[in-house]
Structure formats: C-alpha cells, structure tokens
C-alpha cells in the first residue's frame, strides 16, 4: 500500500482527479498545545526533536506538504462551544 | 540549523493519528467528513494486484483477476483460473447495488447478469475469500480488504457509503462521523 501511495504522490495525485473531501474537525486545546510544545521543543533542539519522532510515524518518502497544500481549497478555524473547529475542503482538480 | 516547524507539526500529527486510531479518535469527537473518491480503472487494477506475487507459479489457482468498470452501475469480473495444465478465462458481468451498509455489512453486493453460473460454481473454491457467491448474488467483502490493509478502523466511522460506477471510474461517496462524546479525559490525551 505504501508503494502505491508513493507512486500516486510522485504523480501529483493525478490518478485521483475529481477527489473531493470536505469536513469539520473539532480540535481540542490539548492537541493544539501538544503541537505548540513540539514546535517549541524543535526550536530549542533540532536533534532532540528528531530523536523524539518515532521512525514508524514518518510520512511517506514522497509526501511533500507544500505540494499537498495546493489541493486545499478552503480552510478556516472557528471557535464553538469552547473548542476550535477546523472547516476544510480539499479537491484534486482534473 | 533552522527550526523545521513543518516537520515538527507533521511529526506530532503522525503520532497523534497513530494514537487516536487505536482508541477510536476520542480527541476528534464531533468530526464530520464527506468525501467523493474516484478510483480510475488504473487504480482499481493496482489495488487488485496489491500483494499478488509477480511470479505466476506462486499465484495459486487464480492467475488473473480484473474488475472492469463498464457503465452506470455495471461491472465485469474477469478471472483466469488454473485448471490442471490450462488457464481458463472466465468473464461475468454484473449490476452493482450502490448502497453499502457500513458498518453492519461492509460488502458491495452485485447481481450477475451474464456469464456462466455453472462455471462460477465449479470454480468457487478457487476464488479469493473476499469474493462471496450465492447463486447469482455476489458480495465483495470490503471489510475484509480494509482489515488486510490495516484500514479497518475506518469501518465504525462510516455513516454513508455508496458506490457509483461510471465508464472507467468507480466513485465512492462517503460520509464519516466521529460521534460526539462527553469529554471524560479532563484535558489528558490518551497515551
């Protein structure tokens, strides 16, 4: 499966032209704080942060976040009932 | 050396995903996602080849298996089975029942419209276990395939699953929801 993913990513996901994903994901403050803590840790010690990231969780070789961001057509955060909600829309155009 | 903020965020998200997947995504309760996923004929071919040995001698009875996306809700199943010294090609056409009742019955149901039922019956023991046949009714067990691909955690999250076949493309229309639940973690993420 990982080989397929690499193949499709290398092809800029053109095999999935027409794919649409949209949704709303509540993000707990604990998650945001964890991300912030990780960013701060990375800033203080690149080496330590790299060591702290397990190899098994490493993204696929061809996963380029900048390239993937091209497909994000809409993303906004709103506050609701004491939590942040991320609304997003991803579309791979043909 | 500059700070790799993107890498740090990607790392924490990857770890978060693994952790949440194991516990039913409690930190994302209330999430709603709708998707239309097109699988072209080339992608379907790739998926069916996944895990199959390149060497024909190691493929067992089913030498070749292809799902052809013909037309609106119509597919063909081409199977080549080894019988004694010969490879016997079988072709069946079927209509697709678009609704997949996930999570209770994560199978795509088909009704055979052409192709030899007796040939299919004769070769039943040789078919892959995710293809289940009862008379003219065929079920493709998507749950089994997801389990084998390590993606069975998706099944309880699916609220709507529809397959729409068009010439050369199989569209999956999906709605996923992580039920909103009372926060009992008191600020602690599951470890």
Query: What form of chain B results from the Cα inertia axes?
Result: globular
Number of discrete helical segments of chain A:
4
The H/E string of chain A reads HEHHHEE
Helix content, binned percent of chain B = 10-25%
Biggest interface pair, residues each? A-B, 38 and 45 residues
Distance between the termini of chain B: 31 Å
- Tell me the helix content of chain A: 25-40%
Q: Mean pLDDT of chain A, as a whole number?
A: 79
Please explain how this structure is put together.
Chain A has helices at residues 2-10, 29-44, 46-52, 65-69, and strands at residues 20-27, 72-80, 83-91. By secondary structure, chain A is of the alpha+beta class. Chain A has a domain at 17-46 and 67-94. In chain A, strands 1-3-2 form a three-stranded antiparallel β-sheet. In chain A, strand 2 (72-80) and strand 3 form a beta hairpin. In chain A, helix 2 (29-44) packs across helix 3. Chain A is flat and about 40 Å long. Chain B is an alpha+beta fold and 191 residues long. Chain B has helices spanning 5-23, 41-49, 117-122, 142-148, and strands at residues 32-40, 62-71, 74-83, 86-97, 107-114, 131-134, 137-141, 158-166, 169-177. Classes of the chains: A alpha+beta (94), B alpha+beta (191).
In short:
With 94 residues, chain A is α+β, with helices and mostly antiparallel strands. Chain A has helices at 2-10, 29-44, 46-52, 65-69; strands at 20-27, 72-80, 83-91.
Task: Give the key terms.
heterodimer, A: about 90 residues, alpha+beta, three-stranded antiparallel β-sheet, flat, B: about 190 residues, six-stranded antiparallel β-sheet, 4 helices, 9 strands, globular, disordered C terminus
Layout of strands and helices, then pairs:
The complex is a heterodimer of chains A (94) and B (191).
Chain A: H1 2-10, E1 20-27, H2 29-44, H3 46-52, H4 65-69, E2 72-80, E3 83-91
Antiparallel strand pairs in A: 1-3, 2-3
Chain B: H1 5-23, E1 32-40, H2 41-49, E2 62-71, E3 74-83, E4 86-97, E5 107-114, H3 117-122, E6 131-134, E7 137-141, H4 142-148, E8 158-166, E9 169-177
Antiparallel strand pairs in B: 1-9, 2-3, 3-4, 4-5, 5-7, 6-7, 8-9
């Amino acid at each position: 499966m990982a080989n397929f993913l690499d193949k499709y990513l290398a092809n800029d996901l053109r095999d999935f032209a027409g794919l649409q994903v949209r949704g709303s994901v509540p993000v707990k403050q604990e998650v945001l704080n964890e991300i912030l803590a990780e960013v701060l840790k990375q800033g203080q010690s690149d080496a330590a942060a790299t060591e702290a990231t397990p190899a098994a969780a490493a993204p696929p070789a061809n996963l380029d976040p900048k390239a993937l961001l091209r497909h994000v057509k809409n993303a906004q955060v709103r506050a609701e009932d004491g939590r942040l909600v991320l609304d997003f829309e991803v579309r791979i155009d043909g | 050396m500059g700070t790799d903020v993107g890498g740090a965020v990607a790392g924490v998200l990857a770890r978060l995903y693994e952790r949440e997947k194991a516990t039913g995504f409690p930190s994302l309760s209330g999430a709603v996602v709708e998707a239309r996923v097109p699988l072209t004929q080339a992608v379907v071919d790739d998926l069916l080849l996944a895990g199959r040995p390149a060497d024909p001698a190691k493929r067992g009875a089913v030498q070749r298996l292809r799902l052809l996306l013909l037309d609106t809700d119509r597919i063909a199943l081409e199977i080549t089975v080894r019988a004694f010294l010969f490879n016997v090609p079988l072709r069946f056409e079927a209509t697709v029942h678009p609704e997949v009742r996930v999570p209770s019955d994560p199978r795509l149901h088909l009704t055979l419209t052409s192709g030899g039922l007796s040939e299919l019956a004769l070769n039943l023991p040789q078919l892959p276990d995710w293809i289940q046949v009862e008379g003219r009714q065929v079920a493709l067990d998507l749950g089994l395939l997801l389990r084998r691909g390590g993606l069975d955690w998706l099944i309880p999250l699916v609220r709507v699953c529809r397959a729409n076949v068009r010439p050369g493309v199989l569209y999956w229309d999906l709605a996923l929801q992580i039920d909103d639940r009372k926060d009992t973690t008191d600020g602690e993420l599951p470890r």
